[in-house]
Amino acid sequence: MAFQAGPIGITFTFQDDDLATAIERVYVPDGTALADAQAFGLEYAALIQPLTDCAMRKFIVSQEYYDDEYPTALPGSDVEDKGVLTFRTFENGSSKMTWPGIVESILVTAISRPGVYIDMANVDVAALVSALISGLGTPAIEPSTRKGEDLLEVKEAFKRNYKSQKSMGFKG
Amino acid sequence: MAWTNNPSILLTLIFTDDDQATGEMRISFPVAQRAYVSGFAQTIIPLLRAVSNCALTHYTISIGMQDHSAETTGAASAMDVGTFIYRTTPDERWRQLIPGLRAAKIATHGDYPGIEINVNDSDVQAFLDVMSNGINGITPVDPWGAALNSLTAAYQQKRRQIINNRY
Predict the structure, then answer these.
(1) Is the peptide bond before B140 cis (omega within 30 degrees of 0)?
(2) Does the first or last residue of chain A, that is N or C, have fewer Cβ atoms within 10 Å of its Cβ?
(3) For the packed helices A34-48 and B122-133, what is the interaxial angle rounded to 10 degrees?
(4) What mean pLDDT do residues B75-100 have?
């Protein structure tokens, strides 16, 4: 696989007196660092504010990377069959992650409710959980909650059917 | 304006199944680690492919800022949209929109008074300068990476606002 970077979109949210919102996006070239794109977004917002009666509430810098080998799904795969991991976080908080298309081979079968719980001793599961809790990459970085808090340990791991979410990836 | 960073940066991994339906996995990171999230993504993708039978086709990294102090002028309608049309290549155009365009930025004379944007207004000029020349070496492009070569039209129009419930 080789991931290719797409252009960076900066999406601004405008809110009017009726609390209706509109979004508008400006694009900057491939290869722009996220931090530089964010700095651009701040200056761009300052330029736009004198032109609009709306309040500019937020902006999001977003970059997409796509696999240029265009992998295909296995027959019978279903994005609504989710793997679910719940985590204990800082000060006894909790957080949840799901991934689509869980493979059946990582589910525990030798219990009273077979096919529900994820086998934490499975090598592939253990590698994923280690990456999510202890970090990965060079340099290694650790995922967090949306508030930026540490994920401390897995509380539960199971399969559940959840409605599919549409991709919010970059769309030209 | 008082912009503040969201506390985390979001990695969204996109999966497609056998029916071409899409689903996603979201992983957050402390915002200070933004430079390394793409490296994390490309390292964890093989691990995710081992536990999913869907195709993991792409991922997106998003970082947000918010300004809770921002206020409207009291006359704001998101449907009053300033529209700037740019020529990118000889055959292609791209439009940049500004929702809630202020009435004071509309031309009062010329061919289309009340419709055309006054491109001589100093605030409009500052915007056009950035679209053409950029800020700190970063110049806007269209979604396919083409330069916005020349402004061909600038006018106000009514456009339905879009509701954004995300992030």
Answers:
(1) no
(2) C
(3) 160
(4) 92
- Convert the pLDDT of each residue in A26-66 to its tens digit: 999 988 988 899 999 999 999 999 999 999 999 999 999 99
Residue pLDDT, tens place only, B129-157: 999 999 999 999 999 899 999 999 999 99
Write the burial class of residue B131 (CB in 10 Å: 0-12 exposed, 13-18 middle, 19+ buried): middle
Any chain B CB within 8 A of the CB of A3? yes
Question: In the numeric block, which tokens belong to residue A158?
Answer: 């199971």
At residue B155, the 3 state secondary structure works out as strand
Per residue in B27-48, is it b (16+ CB within 10 Å) or e — as a string? bbbbbebbebbbbbbbbbbebb
Residues in A touching B26 (Cβ below 8 Å): 97
Per-residue pLDDT at A119 exceeds 90: yes
The answer, for A69 touching chain B at a CB cutoff of 8 Å, is: no
CB of A156 within 8 Å of a chain B CB? The answer is: no
3-state DSSP assignment of residue A46: helix
Residues of chain B in contact with residue A137, where contact means CB-CB under 8 angstroms, are 36, 39-40, 43
Q: How far is B102 from chain A (nearest CA, A)?
A: 5
Residue A112 C-alpha, separation from nearest chain B C-alpha, in angstroms: 23
Among A53, A141, A168, the residue with its CB nearest the CB of B102 is A53
Q: Cα distance from B95 to chain A (closest Cα, Å)?
A: 10
Residue A97 near residue A145 (C-beta atoms within 8 A): no
Residue found by looking up tokens 């609390």 in the block? A19
Query: Is residue A164's pLDDT more than 90?
Result: no
Indicate yes or no: CB of A57 within 8 angstroms of CB of B68: yes
Question: A111: buried, middle or exposed (CB in 10 Å: 19+, 13-18, 0-12)?
Answer: exposed
- What number is the average pLDDT over the span B26-41? 92
Residues of A in contact with B30 (CB under 8 A): 144, 148
Instruction: Count the Cβ atoms, other than its own, within 10 Å of residue A12.
Output: 24
- Cα–Cα distance list, B16 to A101, A142, B31 (Å): 9, 26, 28
pLDDT of residue A114: 80
